[in-house]
Amino acid sequence: MPGDLSQIDLSGAALGGAGVLLVVLGCVVVLLAARYRRENAQLRARNTELSMENDRWHEDFAAATGELTALREGLHENCAYRPAPRAEAS
């Protein structure tokens, strides 16, 4: 064992430490990518579900609007709807 610590070559240890750090960072990146893909798939599925629900709401609204229009027109025809006469100012 050398008496002077400045004579110890640490380049191999530094290289090994850098290699371990790169492996750890690579694993973190892979895990984050897997998590992102899973969450992205879940969000896409939820988006599709909400889009389909939105389409159903639009269809229901259009149907209700059509029914109300038909009822209003039928009411006007059946009741011979006429606006009330206006009182004239004297």
Detailed description of the structure:
The chain crosses the membrane at residues 12-34. Keywords: Membrane, Transmembrane, Transmembrane helix. This protein has one helix and no strands. With 90 residues, the protein is mainly alpha-helical. The protein has a domain at 54-80. The longest helix has 68 residues, at 11-78. The protein is rod-shaped and about 120 Å long. 0% of the residues are buried.
What percentage of the residues does DSSP assign to strands (E)?
under 5%
Number of helices: 1
Provide the gyration radius in Å. Answer: 38 Å
Q: Would you count the extended β strands for me? A: 0
Mean pLDDT: 85
Oligomer: single chain
Low-confidence stretches: none
Roughly how many Å apart are the termini?
123 Å
> Sheet bearing the most strands, described?
none
Q: Tell me, briefly, the overall form.
A: rod-shaped
Helix fraction bin: over 70%
Provide the succession of SSEs.
H
User: Which structural class matches the secondary elements?
Assistant: mainly alpha
Index terms:
90 residues; mainly alpha; 76% helix; transmembrane helix; membrane; transmembrane
